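Consider today's protein:

***
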Amino acid sequence: SNFSLIYSAIFCQNMVKVACHDYGHDCDFTVTGEIDQVVEKYNQHSEEDHGIEYVKEDLTQRFMELETSQ
C-alpha cells in the first residue's frame, strides 16, 4: 500500500545523535545518522573501546526514544 511506502520513507530518515558520555562513559565519541547505522557504529565503538556489547534491539529501542525527545 501507499501508506507503508510513505511510512518507510519517513522511517528511513530517522536521524539521531548519540553521545557515549550520555551512557556513563568518560568518552567524547558521538555518532549521528539513521538509527540502524548509529546502532551499528555505537555498538562497534562500545565493544572496541569499552568492552561492552549491546543487544541491537535494545539500542534501537533506546535510540528511538532519544529521537522523539531531540
